[in-house]
# Entry
Amino acid sequence: MCLFRDTLNDAVFTELMNRHYGPALQIAETRLFDKENAIDAVQEAFVRIVRKRKRYDGRRFAPWFYAILRNICTDIIRKEMRRKQKHSQFQEACAAEPPPEATQNDDFDALIASLSPLDREALTLRYAADLSVDEIAAQLDCSEAAAKKRVQRAIKHLREKHVPGRRRET
# Structure
């Protein structure tokens, strides 16, 4: 491992991946209950060991690597919890109660599809991707004020269109 740390040796890295990928994937799947997130976590762990290889102090590799993987899994779990919470808050903010013509089969995608592409993208970045306003602005290549306004406009549109008793303004 010291050879990998000092020279970024491909053969050593390949050996580490071959040895630890399978067990790491099992650990990540056990923690995350999701195969795709587990694969992402393991890949991110290997990326981090490359980036942080200079910090490796020569102790046994496995405990260091699995601590990194465990932290990544914890981050994914927290992000997923925040995403679910934001999704719930968004649904509550958009409609206090369903419109009278709505049925139980109406879904969230139909609500989002009613937005303009720019507003839909801003809203998706805010609540589905859990990005901050400044991150949305960077993604949309606009000012923070414009990004914030797009999110607000999208929520206003959804409320006006889908919440009974709201007056529509044109």
Q: What stands out?
A: The longest helix spans residues 61-94. The mean pLDDT is 81. The chain has eight helices and no strands.
